[in-house]
């Protein structure tokens, strides 16, 4: 009992010293992080980061997942969205009465293993070789859902960062033509700006329904927003729409 109390005191002391070593913006960010209720909930439920609650809220409201679906998670690091997907498509087979799903996570960064998911680390989603490997890893080369929490390295120039992320999202639409099942779903993060309407217009060419979402777990001051595109038209219909 005494050792537990001493360990807790040591952790508090270490945290305080860590905060004291920071200044300005770093100090404010750390204080906000430690107070964040979603950070606390993520730790309690063993999610890798708070972003899990964005996807949980979106799925609870819009019903993306069901057992047996195949999911591609782009920009998966550190793996919180993959954790949610694994749970909701029954990728570990934890419910023997339900179909078993599949989750593939891709990221430029290193990825720690996650039960029920296949990870492709150090991989650029825009690279042709990566896209070919994705098709090889997906069952029958197809996904029912594409998730993207990707973000480019920030330059600090808001409009430039916005444009870079929009272009990343557009690259997902090119990828979807090779792997997304007709009727499939695409959920992608973007930073709001003057080119957001271009991405929305392109999504409407390829999907029957597009919604703009701002989950409660997204910080109010953040430009982060999500497009949820449902009912993929399929390659032949998309090509026909582009010709018209």
From TrEMBL:
Chain ranges of the Ribosomal RNA methyltransferase FtsJ domain: 47-231
Active site as annotated: 189
Catalytically driven reaction(s): uridine(1369) in 16S rRNA + S-adenosyl-L-methionine = 2'-O-methyluridine(1369) in 16S rRNA + S-adenosyl-L-homocysteine + H(+)
Signal peptide (UniProt feature, chain positions): none
Superkingdom field: Eukaryota
Keywords, alphabetical: Methyltransferase, Mitochondrion, rRNA processing, S-adenosyl-L-methionine, Transferase, Transit peptide
One MF term in the entry's GO annotations: rRNA (uridine-2'-O-)-methyltransferase activity
Gene Ontology terms: cellular component: mitochondrial matrix
Free-text function comment from the UniProt entry: S-adenosyl-L-methionine-dependent 2'-O-ribose methyltransferase that catalyzes the formation of 2'-O-methyluridine at position 1369 (Um1369) in the 16S mitochondrial large subunit ribosomal RNA (mtLSU rRNA), a universally conserved modification in the peptidyl transferase domain of the mtLSU rRNA. This activity may require prior 2'-O-methylguanosine modification at position 1370 (Gm1370) by MRM3. Essential for late-stage assembly of mtLSU required for efficient translation of mitochondrial DNA encoded proteins; methyltransferase activity is not required for this function.
Name recorded for this polypeptide: rRNA methyltransferase 2, mitochondrial
Species this chain originates from: Pantherophis guttatus
Recorded name of the encoding gene: MRM2
